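Holo prediction — uridine-5'-diphosphate.
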Amino acid sequence: MKKILITGAAGFLGSHLCDKFIDEGFKVIGMDNLITGDLKNIEHLFKLDNFEFYHHDVSKFVHVPDDLDYILHFASPASPIDYLKIPIQTLKVGSLGTHNLLGLAKAKGARLLIASTSEVYGDPQVHPQTEEYYGNVNTIGPRGVYDEAKRFQESMTMAYHRFHGLETRIVRIFNTYGPRMRLNDGRVIPAFIGQALRGEDLTVFGDGSQTRSFCYVDDQVEGIYKLLMSDYAEPVNIGNPYEISILDFAEEIIKLTGTDQKIVFKPLPKDDPMQRQPDISRAKSILGWEPKVNRAEGMKLTYDYFKSLTKEELQRSEHKDFSDRNRK
Ligand code: UDP
C-alpha cells in the first residue's frame, strides 16, 4: 500500500485530498496544527485502519516513523483575513515548514508536491496568468507574508529538485471553493453565503469590478492528483478560467439564496488583485486536465453544505482568536 503524508489535513483542501487518497487505496497520514484547520473535516476518517493523524506544526522538525512514497504540503493559512491575523506563522509554514518537508522527502525518497498559489502573481499585469509570468507582488504589503512565503517555497522546492534531484511538483492553486470552507475565514464565498443565511447585507469590497475565477474543489483535487502522478516538475496552474466580477458574483448569490438583503460597498483591502484568471493550457496539455463542474452546479453544492450547518455555527461569524499565537 502506497503511503502519503498530507500536511494541512484538517483544512478545506487538505481534508478533501485525504478523502481522495483514501479512495485511491493509499495509507494516508494527516498532519495539522489545527490553527485554522478543524478536526470535524476529517473525523469520518479516524475509524479507518489506513488513516492516521498527527497533531503537529510542520514549521518544527517533522518526524514520521513510516516509509513515505508521497508528501503533499498543504499546511498554511490561506485567506487574507487569516494571514493578517497570523502573519508570522504564515511566513514560517511556507518557508521553514517547506524546508522541513523537503528534508523529510529527501530522507524518505518520497515525491513532494507543494501547494503554491495564484498569489505568486500578486496583482497581475498579465491577463490571463500563464506560468511564465513572474508576477507583481508587494513584498511588504499585508499579503506579502503569504505571497513571499509561497514564492520562497517554490524557489526552495526547485533548488532541492535541481541540486538534490528530489522529485517535486508545484501546483499554483487559483480560488477554489466547496463544502468544508470555513464559514468565518473571510473569503468571499463563505462571507456572502454566511451573510445571506444570517439575513445580513452582502459586503462587496471596492466597486466590485475586481474579478476572480472560481474552481470547484473536486476539480481542484483531480488536477492535483494528476499533477502528483505526472513527471512534470515546473509549476502548473490549476483553476477554473471562467471569470466573473465580484459585483456580478454577489448578484448571483442573491439569486441562488433567494435573500432579500442588499449589496453594501466597503473599502477595497490593500493590494487586492484587480483581476485573476488562470491560463490552464499547461494543465490541459501536460495533465489532460480541465475543470468539469460549472459555477451553478458547484455553488448549489456549496450552498447546500452551508445550509446544513447548525444555527449556532452560522452565528459564529467571529474569527478564531489567534491573539496568543501571533508572536511565535
Ligand atoms: N470580497 C468582497 N467581500 C467580502 C469578501 C471578499 O468583496 O466580504 C472580495 C475581495 O476583496 C476580493 C474577492 O472578493 O476582491 C475575493 O476575495 P477572497 O478573500 O475570497 O480571495 P482572494 O482571491 O482575494 O485571495
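READOUT: The longest strand covers residues 111-117.
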